[in-house]
Amino acid sequence: PLHGVVGALEGAIAAMRERVTRGGLVHLPVAALQVVETPAALRPIAAPLAYRAPADAGGDGVLLVTPPEPDGRRGGLARAELASVAAREGVPGVHVQLATARALPHPVRRALITAEGSAAWAAYAEWVMAESGALGSSEERFFHAYRVLRSAVRLLLDIVMHTKGVSVAAAADRLESELGLSPAEALAEARRCCANPTLGVCEAVGRRALLALREDVRRERGPAFSLGVFHDELLRYGALPTALARWGMGVA
């Protein structure tokens, strides 16, 4: 586990911001992103990471990070994991999507955050940064692959827990055996899957839908296709479902 996680994560987000800007991958919002430790009173019930979007176009986003517990009941982030986390939760991930949405003129797109739209963009953003080479070391690429595997396991558990009657305890056992989570971490993850039906499906299926949309737009536009322009167009739909963005962009 990595101690001093706030400063380390701030550095990883800054590196992603520089990479995104240099590569012209997307226009970044004016809103800053503050990384702060989760208040002590909230840590027993908090997720390891939680993002709070700006209240309006002039506000800042906040990424709450829950530090590891000395007794080992809650693990921390590994150093090689920070790049993936920064891409997913910060830039060009959740923060860029929701801070951009807060400045949109259309009130529905500005305010409505759907699970499919938000989870899909987060997973897609991490994927794009992996494609761009921003996850440069073998350790960083390993953690990205591990996070994709974890997403696939959550997808499966999301389905069987809510349609097949699989218990939280059984789901935790599977998370522990297939992902190497500690018993406490596996139980917490299983409980989150139980409390957030369809979120695992939205993440995995949503990432695939965005990748498919990107390739369809690339095929239609040919040499004129620009990844940065595509991302800017997509973010003008806020966190609406990808199907609505596809319809609005006129892609068959």
Characterize the structure shown.
The structure is a single chain. The protein has helices spanning 5-23, 82-90, 94-102, 107-111, 115-131, 138-163, 168-179, 183-195, 199-221, 227-235, 242-248, and strands at 33-37, 49-52, 61-65. It is mainly alpha-helical and 252 residues long. Strands 1-3-2 form a 3-stranded mixed β-sheet, covered by helices on one side. Helix 1 (5-23) packs across helix 2 (82-90), helix 6 (138-163) crosses helix 9 and helix 7 (168-179) crosses helix 8.
In terms of topology, how is this protein built?
Blueprint: H1 5-23, E1 33-37, E2 49-52, E3 61-65, H2 82-90, H3 94-102, H4 107-111, H5 115-131, H6 138-163, H7 168-179, H8 183-195, H9 199-221, H10 227-235, H11 242-248
Helix pairs in contact: 1-2, 2-5, 5-9, 6-7, 6-9, 7-8
Which key phrases capture this entry?
252 residues, mainly alpha, three-stranded mixed beta sheet
Please sum up the structure shown.
The chain is mainly alpha-helical and 252 residues long.
Structural category is mainly alpha
On the 0-100 scale, what is the average pLDDT? 92
**How far is the N terminus from the C terminus?**
46 Å
| Main β-sheet, spatial strand arrangement | 1-3-2
